[in-house]
Amino acid sequence: MNARTVGALLGMAALLVTGLSTGVRVYYLLFGVLASMLLIALVSTVWALATLKVSISTDVNRATRGDRMGLVFTVRHLSFMPVAYIGIEMDVPSQVTGTHEVTVRAAALKRRTFRQVLLCPHRGVYQIGLRRASAEDVFGLIRLSKRMKSSNAILEVALRDRKADAMALGNVDDGPMYFSRSTEDTASPSDVRAWQNGDSLKKVHWKLSMRRRQVLVRTYEESARPDTLILPDLSPIPALRDQQLTLEDEICESALSIARAQLEAGYPVRMPLTCSVPMELSAHFMADFAPFGDALMRVPFDSATPYEQVLMMMTPRLQRTGGAVLITARLTTRVADMALKLRQSGVRVRLVWISEDVRDQSLSMLERLKMDGVEVQVRNLREG
């Protein structure tokens, strides 16, 4: 009920009272006209909604964040009485509400097809479908709506592919835990082979050589290349809805781009995702990279464990780690202390800070980390 409906009802009441008081037929005539308008408005909207059929589809099933997609929907109703418009509310990727409403004009018994271009601003898996439909009569007196049931189309919005610099992981020998991280055991050879020119005498297996009457040399398994431990901060971000989703997108895209760069450089990658349902991704070659994009597209930011505690839990796993990448939208002194502690253990550390508000106090903290050997990258969203 809107202002027009209220005005029409008040007018009908006034005309009826006046007609009964004076007995003049013109007041009854005007009352009948208004009553007929209300009846036509009610019947037309109810009939249109009762017979309304809407189908919806998308041009693609998968898009990249920031792309535009085409939305095609078909409208038809069987009401012979005219209606002003049909309103359709749909579930779509959106920055704030997650819904999109359009109004169309559809004549009775005619199937009309409409096309909308929508932006995919954030990563995730969305169900594109109808939520509600509404109809308004030509007089603007009555507007009714109802929930719509329809088959939903699934749209996957993947992360953007950005370029990132790989972090070189050599033989780390500048930390106090270097000797405990050494993986070569000279007392445990893996096999023996025949002597070759240039071999060291220390590697000769004298007992076996005397037994077989030929010079045999101990061989050792080559230690695996140091891997990269990527730790994105999956704690809930206290911010406005659009800002929160943007920060989540940037964290996931940074993690994905660094994982790609490390794999292309030949370094294995491990990425624990400490959300409400923890999981871990690992890859040694680029052929194993696809699950990273799919998991980061779907992962929720609902970790119940603070990021500082997550870093503490990962400390025992640094035995075979050559580098650690910390990605967070909240730079605190505890996060900085953990980054410094990891660096002092002999691990190369890169701290990626994503923020919309880069303050002087935070910059001074980052400068101190740089002086202690931590690689720092700042992603300022206001600068693009």
Descriptive report:
- There is one protein chain.
- With 384 residues, this protein is of the alpha/beta class.
- It folds into 3 domains: 1-158, Sandwich (Immunoglobulin-like); 184-219, no CATH class; 227-383, von Willebrand factor, type A domain (Rossmann fold).
- The protein contains 9 helices and 17 strands.
- Strands 2, 4, 5, 7, 8 and 9 form a 6-stranded mixed sheet that branches. The protein has a 6-stranded mixed sheet with strand order 14-13-12-15-16-17, with helices on both faces. Strands 1-3-6 form a 3-stranded antiparallel sheet, with no helix packed on it.
- The longest helix has 26 residues, at 25-50.
- 28% of the residues are buried.
- Mean pLDDT is 85; it is low at 172-185.
Brief synopsis:
The protein is of the alpha/beta class. Helix content is 32%, strand content 29%.
Which labels suit this protein?
384 residues; alpha/beta; Immunoglobulin-like; Rossmann fold; 6-stranded mixed beta sheet; 9 helices; 32% helix; elongated
